[in-house]
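Please go through this protein, sequence plus structure tokens, and consider how the sequence yields the tokens. Keep your notes short.
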Amino acid sequence: MGAFFILALMKPTSLLELLLSSDGVSIDSRTIRPGQLFFGLAGTQADGSQYAKNALDAGARAVVVQGGIQTIGEDDRFWYVDDVLLTMQTLAREYRQFLKCTVLAITGSNGKTTNKNLLYKVLSQRFRAHSTTGNFNNHIGLPLTILNAPTDTQFLLLEMGTNHFGEIQELCSIAQPDFGSIINIGKSHLEFLHSIEGVLKAKAELADALLERNGKLFLNEEEESLVPLSGHPVEKIPFDMNQLPGGGRLHILQSAPDIKLEIKDAQGESTFIHSVLWGHHNVLNLLHAIAIGLYFGVDVKNMGQALSEYVPGNNRSQIIIWKGHKVYLDAYNANPTSMESAIRGFRSVYPDQGILVLGDMGELGDVATREHQAILALVEELDFNQVYLIGEEFRRSGMDRYPGFIFLNDVSELSGVSFAVGEPILIKGSRFMALERLLED
């Protein structure tokens, strides 16, 4: 982990010194690497402190476990604290201040991880960047990300997720971002946030935190859902297709079946991007990465090459060839806004053909039936050739009203189904549906 071993030969007297003499942190004794610091978090199934010895046997530098007021045990590899999670979060806040790097936090209803991955590709062209791994974007994952940043990190890119009010405020108190971006506002986590206005309020906690720190908020003025943020008092860095930082413009040459863009700078020089991503929603994601990259002085040619080389993974906007079908796999998660966007985008790519495999959307609470019915009405309106709907919510919302659709309990029931030969397939659903299992057949 680079300079983490600078204090390896000194006996640490604080947790920060202990961290600096370690090779990062872990909360999993099964995958811990030698030299890492282990935090024994209490979980729903077991207390992580029970696995402290396992972590030490695997080569952990030291373990932080439950045990009252902060003390060091007779074996100085054991550090006892009253609250392991709070200690980890506090240490992350302290280490963030030690790093003295630029911190950019991103949140939004849809596309957080894709945007984070695109931004990391861009920012890495100029900075020693470190970013959230996977979707480690909550009260545990965010401090882990910070604590695993090398000491020579210049740019820290953090994804922030939320499904309750106050969570982003808490994450910002740890991360202390200098810059932020709210990608979009959609119908996500309505079970807890209740409405679009509630989602806006929760996501705007990032803007509130930036205002307190004299930070700046990037504002994509092409994204209509962000219009309410234009009146927020935080200092904003606005951008759109016609006004990129530095005076350039972005031209859409093609948005389907893949994306082709032209960046024209203030001097009239052109840089072209050919991305395997598809649909207008991903055009906005690329615009977001380009604008922020330009603001931070990333060379436009290097940025264009990095974005052209980006290949999505982990069930997000992936394109896979399976049994002669071109499959658009976007099954990592779903909410009504992202589901509608994916379906409309898929139809724009294939106006006369296409098979849908859609799974239930979670965390919608009292509006679940209404939102699933709206998706069913959209699917009927766009007239797809074959429609397979997986899950109890879709079944409850439309089985009696849409006899032309096929309703199933689980994606495994599609095993052996004969899809129309050569037809493209869109797979979209919430994480708990695990629709990607279809492709294992």
